[in-house]
TrEMBL record:
The keyword Ribosomal protein does not apply. Pfam families: BPD_transp_2 (PF02653). GO terms for molecular function: transmembrane transporter activity. This is ABC transporter permease. The keyword Transmembrane applies. InterPro entries: ABC_transp_permease (IPR001851). It is a multi-pass membrane protein. Signal peptide: none annotated. It is found in: Cell membrane. GO terms for cellular component: plasma membrane. The chain crosses the membrane at residues 12-33, 45-62, 68-87, 94-111, 146-162, 193-212, 218-237, 244-262, 268-287. Keywords: Cell membrane, Membrane, Transmembrane, Transmembrane helix. It comes from Acidisoma silvae.
Length: 312
């Protein structure tokens, strides 16, 4: 019994980074969007396009680097449409995001239909033999693939840019008070456009991670609500990429335990197990709504289109 528990805990802890990485990448990309005042509810569709493009590139023999690049480019193409709707045409951001969500999920399903259920070469660990002397759980936890490492490094880079550089100050000013930023000489449209596109590329990385590292196959609907969970995690992390690491690890731990429970032989209702990430999302949203947690950190101009002629 002790051996079973030890093995179960070891496998669980070792799997957390891989399951947490897509959440962390997606949350980081959305934080960049929202700190500039743009709410992107199309994350699920953008991630789906990144996932299917990466798989198609692998099955076409382009190799892993090109697969990651194609995932980013596919997500960028979908994000360009979202940016056109919200930043250039200044349409309502919530509705525009829902359009991108539906369009991306549907288009990825159509494109990927003939490539579905075909296994691909996984993006494996960088140093598979470097941690052999460590305990099993620690070796699995530390020996990760390049995309997973990057997922945990990127939030520190984004935090530094947002909080410590002039570029970050300009981007944050656009999200807090776009008219004041415009009066100070900041190009609001350019800053928001750049933030949306960079965030979309990172969402594409999240989708590519799901297909190249996680499932290693394309299946329609494989993103399975992770884009929506990332939207909730932005609020839970209070629009801070460093706090997003803890939020993503929490959800990665919830997600990582599901396949272990299903394969353990324990008599646990399968539907209850599959509900766990969404129950955790409800709990996170409830926690985020308590007190002044949301109001104290949310950008003031979030989801508010900027019109230079507008006066407040």
């Amino acid at each position: 019994m002790n051996g079973f528990v030890t093995g179960f805990l070891g496998d669980w802890i070792g799997a957390i980074p891989v399951f947490a990485a897509p959440y962390l990448l997606a949350t980081t990309g959305l934080i960049i969007n929202e700190r500039a005042g743009v709410m992107n509810l199309g994350a699920e569709g953008i991630m789906s396009m990144g996932a299917v493009a990466a798989v198609i590139a692998m099955l076409s023999g382009l190799g892993l680097p090109m697969a990651v690049l194609m995932g980013c480019l596919a997500a960028l193409g979908m994000t360009l449409l979202f940016a056109l709707l919200t930043v250039v045409l200044r349409l309502e951001q919530v509705l525009s995001g829902l359009v991108i969500f539906a369009f991306g999920v549907g288009l990825s399903g159509v494109i990927g239909d003939s490539f579905a259920n075909q296994p691909i070469k996984a993006l494996g660990p960088i140093y598979p033999a470097a941690f052999t002397g460590l305990p099993r759980w620690l070796a699995r936890f530390t020996d990760q693939d390049p995309l997973t490492y990057f997922a945990f490094i990127l939030p520190f880079i984004v935090w530094w840019v947002l909080e410590k550089t002039e570029l970050g100050l300009r981007l944050r000013s656009v999200g807090e008070n776009a008219p004041a930023a415009d009066a100070a000489g900041v190009n609001v449209m350019l800053m928001r456009l750049g933030a949306v596109l960079v965030g979309g590329i990172i969402l594409g990385l999240a989708g590519a991670h799901l297909s190249l590292v996680g499932s290693q196959v394309w299946v329609t609907g494989m993103v399975s609500g992770r884009g929506w969970i990332a939207v909730a995690l932005v609020t839970f992390a209070r629009w801070n990429t460093l706090r997003a690491i803890g939020a993503a690890v929490l959800f990665g731990a919830v997600q990582a335990v599901i396949p272990l429970l299903l394969s353990s032989g324990l008599h646990v209702p399968i539907y209850l197990i599959q509900m766990m990430p969404y129950l955790a999302t409800i709990a996170v949203l409830a926690a985020s709504g308590m007190g002044r947690l949301r109001a104290s950190a949310q950008p003031e101009d979030l989801a508010r289109p900027f019109l230079r002629e507008e006066r407040r």
